Every structure is written in C-alpha cells, then in structure tokens.
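Student: Send me a single protein entry containing the residue sequence and its fold in token form, directly below this note:

Tutor:
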Amino acid sequence: MERWNSCIFKDILDSIELQERAEGMQADNIEQQNIEDQILEAVLTINQTSSAEKVLTQTKEAKKAKKRHRRSFLLSKIPSFDLDNSPRRVISRAHSVVSNNSNSSSKAKSNSFSAASRCTTSPSRKLARSFHPDTHIPIEPLDIYDPDLMIDERGSVMGGTPQKLLELTTNVSFQDFFYISQFLSVYKFFMTTEEVLEHIIDFYRAAPTKCTTNEEQEERNWLIRQRVLLIITKWIRNHKADFFGNQVLCSKIRGLLEEIDEQAALDTFTKCLTLFNVPPPTPRGNDVECVFLCKFEAKHLAQQLALAEQLLFQKISAKELREQQWVKSQDELSPTVTRSIRHFNKISYWIATEIVKCYSIKERIFTLQRAIQVASESIELKNFNTAMAVVCGLSLSAITRLKQTWQGISSTCKASFSKMEELMSGNSNYDNLRKFISKQHPPMIPYLGIFLKDLTFVDVGNPTYLDNDNRIINFDKLRMISNIITKLQNFQVIPYPFTEDPSAQNYIHSTATPYDEEQLYRISRIVEPTTEPSDSQRTSSIIKRMRKSKK
C-alpha cells in the first residue's frame, strides 16, 4: 500500500512540468499560500493515510491548484523532488521542500572549488530547509557547497574527504540508497571497518535533537533507527567477510542490534556468520593417481568441478579485490583470490597431464575428447571459469603439437572445440564471452579473469584523489570499482543444486600436483615424437634451396 501511495504521489509530481521555467508572475499572496499548504498537506499525509480514496482526493485537489497557477511558482517551492523512474528512487519519493532560493547565486560564487575543479550543481538542488517525506519533523539538509564534498548536477557523489563520504551514509536527507551499497563495497580503500562501525554507533547514540513535541522526537528516533538498520542489514548481508574472525566487531554489532531491539536483523547477522564459517575441504594425501578424467561421465565430472569452483568463488570478498592486492601481497591480503587463480592453473595443467600420460594413441584420443566434453558441459552449467581453464589446458603447446591425436577425434568434438575457442577468445577484451555471460542467469560462475582485468583497468586509469593535496577522494572511481564488485557478488548468491561425490571431490581437492609446462612438453615429445627427415629428404631439400638461390 505504501509503494502504491508513493506511485500516486509520483503521478502528482510527474504532472508538474518542472523544466518549464517562467519568469515571475504577479500572483495573489493569499492564493499562493493556499497552493503551498495543499501541496505540503499532500506530502505529509501520504504515508499516514491508509485509505486510497483520501489519497485520490488530495491528488485531484493538487492538480486543480496546479491548473489555476503558473508552474514557475511550483518549481520554486519543490525543486528537489526526485522524478527518476528507478524503483529505488521511487522509494525515496520527495527529498525536500524548499522555501527559499534567493541566495543561490551568491553561495555558488563563494564556493572554494572552481568550475574546472568540481562539478556544478543545478539550482533545483540548493536546499534551505527540508522535511523528511515520512515524518512531520524538519531535517538537516545536505550542504552541497561543502568544500569537502563534490556532487554533480544529477545529485551523484563524485568525491569527498573520507569523513564526509562516511557522514553521507547516515545523512537522513541524502536518500540515494545506491550510495550506501557503493560505499560499503569500497570504504576499505580509505578507512577501516572499526571506524565505520564506530560512526554508525555514535550516530545512533547521539544526543537527541530539540523537537517541539514528543511526537516529533519519536518520529525522529524512528527515522534514525530505520537508517541504521538499513546500513547494518546491507552490510551483514553483502559484506559479512568484514566481520569474520573479529570478535570485537561482532560483539559491537550484536550489542547495537540488541539496543535497537531488532531480532530479525540479529538473526540474519548470526546466520550469515555461520554460513561464512564453513570450513574448506580437507586436503587429501598424495596417494591419488592422476588417471582420473575418464572414470566419470563428462556431465557428472562437470558438476563436481562446478561445486569445487563454487566453494572458492563464494568466499571471494570485496576487500580482496582492492588495489590489485592479488598481485602485490597474494596470500596475505587476497587469500581466496589467490587460491582461485591457483585452482584455475591446476585444472589447466591437470587436463594436459591426463592427456600426455596416455601412451596409447587410442587412449589419448579418448581422453582429449572427454576433456572437450567436460568443457562443453561446463558451459552448459554456466561454469565459465572451469571451461576457460580446460580450454587453456588444451591450448598448451604440449597438447597442440599432438597432431595425430587431434586428427583422431570426431568432427563433432572438433567443431565443439572451435566454438569454445571463439567464445573464450581474449580478442576485443573478451567481447564474445562478455556478451554471452550478460544473457545468462545464476547459478553461474563467470570467468574471474574478466573482473580482475576490469578492476586493474579502473585502478590504473583513474586518479585516486581529485585535488593536489590528496584530500578529496575520487569517489567516482570507487563507484566504478563498486559496480564491478557488485556484478561479481550477484553471482555468489545462488548455489548449484548438485550433490557432492566424495570420490570425485577427493581428487579435485587433493594435493596431487600435475606436471608443469616443461615436463608436459618433454613427455609430449616422448608419446608423439617429431618425425626426423631421412638423409635423402635432407639432400633433396638442400638441392632445392641451391636452385632457388641461383634463380
């Protein structure tokens, strides 16, 4: 009902053509005051009313008032309503109601940032005093002229000091809920988890603002409570790794949720930590033989590889994906990403090892066909990371040089492998694979290398700060990083519905090490040696070269 009410109220705002500015009009002060009272009354009663008929009545009255007077007056009174069609923007409804814009030009001139160094802000966002749409009480507006904050004309945060970026999360008048999710994904670039949590706790426990009535104070407390719950809920659902292993932080979160008296959020927090604390599979011994690829059907093996891949993929957290840590520190700061990369390489070399260990040409042909089938089944299961690993293994020089083996596989396998090579090609920044993945839905494991490459490109190609003093953080860069991380996290939510096969998982998670590239090539030359030319062939080739040189 509340969402339906907000849609009705949005229809009122959509009917007002805010872009049409007409220069001043001599209007009767009494009639103008009546219009303002009608609109404010509609705003303040939308979330209190439970009857659809009352809302429709107020809608009609507001439309009639709009027809009797020029739209320029309405524009000066409600410039900051959000008319975006995005569902999350509809939630925020009206950001504020403005009573005075007369000092906008003088404030813009006094801004310490020049037009070249910061984004300009539309006059429609210059706030003086505002009301939260869900309450009767006034709230502090967002100061867009703050020299420590940069906001573009669309209201998007482009940069700011760490403290200002943190304060925006708890600023009730700033209702861009996308910003909260983006901030939680990238805050570790410039501050710690402890600092963010302390700020949220201080915000909730801060001294109450003076309100005229007890009802206003209760409404303001409710507003603060909902804001804190929104932040904490998003945090523990999407970034639970930030708290894992830190008992001090976990106890503070529990204490805050108990103080707020929100059992549902407390249960979610406990459940998320329990799910995240699943121990990894215990490594098995080295007694597992490497002859394994042909023991199972291709589809069954692809399912088991998907489960093993998913176990690592779901553990990748946002904090491991910042500042190319998987290249710099590896095991220290990006342990899961590093393990995923090692697992990828292990699968590639394992596939090649399985093939070259077959000394019989028939066994090699069968094993090669089985590897291609496993890659094809992995694509069917939308496990693109394992499929890429298998294709890379089959593209090693130790495998591509096996001409007799490749000639012996069926035409169906050849065609299938050609299609996979085209799909997994790195040309045009993996354009074919990106388009294909964009049309798929979870459960899915994308190729991790695409995300790591995009994160590297954004990190290297954009400055971290927007000023020479390294004070204003480039939040637009962090927003791009957040979007990449969010896409990756969307694929971590839905698991595969397969059942683990202990014998298959025993080998996949074993410590058995496949051959390296040098060993693979040496064995490849043994099982399928290069044919040496005879003496007569060498003599004839020399004579041909001499004849060509004379000509």
Residues 214-238 form the longest helix (25 residues). The mean pLDDT is 74. Strands lie at 130-131, 138-139, 149-151, 157-160, 473-474.
